[in-house]
Write a structure and sequence with these properties.
The complex is a heterodimer of chains A (216) and B (481). In chain A, 66% of the residues lie in helices and 0% in strands. Chain A is mainly α and 216 residues long. Among the domains of chain A are: 78 residues, NADH-ubiquinone/plastoquinone oxidoreductase chain 6, subunit NuoJ (Four Helix Bundle (Hemerythrin (Met), subunit A)); 35 residues. Chain B has 481 residues and is mainly α. In chain B, 75% of the residues lie in helices and 2% in strands. Chain B is globular. Classes of the chains: A mainly alpha (216), B mainly alpha (481). At the A-B interface, helix 6 and helix 8 of A face helix 4, helix 5, helix 6 and helix 8 of B.
Amino acid sequence: MIEQILFYVFAAVLIFAATMVITARNPVHAALFLVLAFFNSAVLWIIAGAEFLGIVLVLVYVGAVMVLFLFVVMMLDINLARLREGFVRHLYIGVPVAALIVVQMILVLGSGAVDPGALPDATLPIPDPAETGNTTVLGGVLYTVYVYPFELAAVILLVAIIASIMLTLRRREGVKHQDVAQQVRVRKEDRLRMARSFGGSGSTSTGRNDNEHPDR
Amino acid sequence: MTTDAFEIPNLTLALPEIWMLGVACLVLVVDLFSGDRDHTPAYWVAQLGLLSAALITVQAQWGLDVTTFDGNYVADAMAVVLKVTVLLLTFLAFAYSRDYLRERGMLRGEFYLLSLFSTLGMMVIISAHSLLVLYLGVELMSLSLYALVAMRRGSPAASEAAMKYFVLGALASGMLLYGMSMLYGATGSLDLAAITDVAAAESRLLLVFGLVFTVVGVAFKFGAVPFHMWVPDVYQGAPTAVTLFIATASKVAAVGLFIRLIGEGLEPLHGDWQNMVLLLAVASILIGNTVALVQTNIKRMLAYSTFNHIGFIFLGFVAGSAEGYGASMFYAVTYSFTVAAAFGVIMLLSRQGFEAENLEDFKGLNERSPLFALVMLLLMVSLTGIPGTVGFYAKWLVIRSVVDAGVMWAAVFAVIGAVVGAFYYLRVVRLCYFDQPEAEGGPQPSGSGGFRFVLAANGLSVLLLGLFPGALVAVCMAAFG
């Protein structure tokens, strides 16, 4: 009973937050509502017994991804109002299509097709979740039964790294940057110059500023 | 199966994928440490890796039908045919695009790298035996392709194409995933064999519900009408080298995706998806042909005519029989090699600061280069489906399977579609042979000797396969036992 009440409360907040994400005028507010949505879905997961996923959702998405989102939004000053210009204009085609799909889905789902009793039990490669913790169970199968998908996910992350570097890294001329290798390779002769000023003429004025990089 | 009963997977079965991953990582390191401006070491490592991967695939998997990695991975004859095709297409794409990319300053190690990872994703799809692996394979393939389309950063057209491809591709992935979650809910298993068993035992509305979304997702990845909006923009906006790769290899992988997920996995629901596939096929042939008629940009023309061919591939699926799948596979394999050569000719005629992508650029090609005019003639005749070239047998096999399935009107419609297609394909032939070139003489073939040799061999193989199609047909039919 208490579980059901909790579920409906958090589900209601989740739907509200998700709606606000796409309707909020201020992009920072939208990002913060997304954080709220993540928190509520994490709670729903914990209620369902998947505490590991709930914690990871908060840690990864709220802790890392959304912070990056906020950084991007604040640094780039994205004008969300312009992005939404087509929203109303295309509504006349979008709404009927969406409504049609929703009605069809309700007809199917309302026909008792997803009645929990009618569905087969999932054939999980894990012991009964009631006996052991969710995290223990995941740890047991991740590197054994699901090692192939797990490695594939790792390859996808590698592709993400390569692609993001390829798309954003550009070498421009005239940018001041430190080349550590060159700094280390520097020899004494490159930097030091023996000033011959025995005659007392004080001719160091023609000398180079030794703090300058030899190439500049 | 629980963790206690865990068996060490048979890694030698999955050797092709492991090898490709190794090659991709090797290219990553080699390219990083070689100071070569043309990325020559990376090129040769990649090419040798692709050819050896094709050999390893045949060696390790031909004639088998076993699963490993706890049912996540399957090795069978169909996987061998499709994987070897994908590997050879990637080989051709690299061979054709090297000069093209170098002249445009786009030749970077990441082009090879991302293409290799995309190829790996296609191989994963083709050998997938669970919903999870199928999805991961699709994502691995698509993510690499999005980045490849966006490779030309300075070009607004490429950025727009990449953006459209990415957003619509993400939408398609969402559809696919939603359908898969329904299939999982209705059957309680991610394993495709288990899904087939449950689907055969009793019919559930929820399964059909999931089926609809998976068909939509797969059709998106194919670019079948009405989920085709992204195709022409992506073909035109992407660098031609990348277009070649998307137009050929990813279509072959999509055939693997369809047969694994819907053809085999949801085989008991054949009655439900037959009409959906038929609708997609007919719409694709209709839209593809009518819009291709009025295109003046040859890349866009090839994009729209792709729908025509995707329609034929889907027609092969309609029967749901071994002959039908074999016909579709034969069609996809021969079509992709033919189109690869067509894009090769476009790249051959392009030079720095000039893209030979308008139909006028092909005027009088015969006077400038009789050999490549002949290649273009063979390719266009094959795409039309005129007897003597391989395209004819591909169309004939598909139409025969449709007639066997008893859908006579679709067969008649497909033949009419092929006749309409003849108009715009043979128009290119007319331009090459009977029209005078423009005032300045038109673009000259450029490119190194190796490129020309591979391209000519690829073009003539269309003729050879058309004269002696028996072996390839036998291989494709044998793939479905």
